[in-house]
Amino acid sequence: MNERLETLFDFNPSGALISSLFVMLIVVVLAIVVGIMAKKADPLKRPKGLLLLAEFFVEKISGFVKENMGENWQHMTAYFMTLSAYLFVAFIWSITGFPSIMDNIFAPLSLALVMWVIITFTALRYQKFGYFHRYIEPIFLFLPINIISQLTPILSTTLRMFGNALSGTIMILIVQWALKGLSGLIFGFMGPNISTLWLAPIPVGVLNLYFALFSGFIQTLVFISLNAAWISAERPAEAMGLRSQALRGPEEKASI
pTM of the full predicted structure? Predict the structure, then answer.
């Protein structure tokens, strides 16, 4: 009994959790620093350095929200700024040598759950009790299937991010293992501790940069795009307006 009480409040965080906390701290500190710089900056002068990058980032995310969700969704800009900043830094975090974040399935699962909560809240906000009608369409017997379909975004986005992150790590490990063995065969005369270090560093470093930077950027863009599509779809009036604009465009061009 005493042993259980002693270990009841033990906290042994994983490497991925510690890395995630560091990433969140970096995003928060950068946001505070940029906010202070923006308040002290002269509005008549062109921004430089970090403030210029922050302004570029805000403009791009704001344009992304306007283009993919519509004019009435500008209040979501802060959410997409935070989400994209965290995601991109989390994907490139492995470059620092600390444990990777997105290789742990709980990281993409947490982001998918946050997305699902926002989707559900948005649907309840704009559709009220009509939101629950989707669970019994076309008849009440489809309730179990409809519940599973409503939870599909959580599973699909989680597995997509986790699979892409894990596949990159596995490919790097395979290349490292192969080059380590090949280096041992070629430079075996130097001794086992030295011969395996010659061929792997540069190719593995290049692959790590590719999967961290390029793949991280693509995965961030894909995830925020899915967020934008699924969240905006829960506002029927605006979705119908955007759909009518898309249909009206070709007709206007044809008439001209």
Answer: 0.76
Query: How far is the C-alpha of 123 from the C-alpha of 121, rounded, in Å?
Result: 5
Torsion (CA) 83, 86, 87, 91 in degrees, nearest 10: 180
Angle at 77 between CA 74 and CA 81, to 5 degrees: 170
- List the structure tokens of 13: 């965080």
pLDDT tens per residue, range 57-102:
999 999 999 988 888 888 899 999 999 999 999 988 877 778 888 8
The backbone region for 97, taken as left when phi is positive above 0, alpha when psi lies in -120 to 50, beta otherwise, is left
Q: Are 126 and 236 in contact (CB under 8 A)?
A: yes
CB within 8 A of 176, min separation 6: which ones?
200, 204
Contacts of 81 (CB under 8 A, 6+ apart): 57, 58, 61
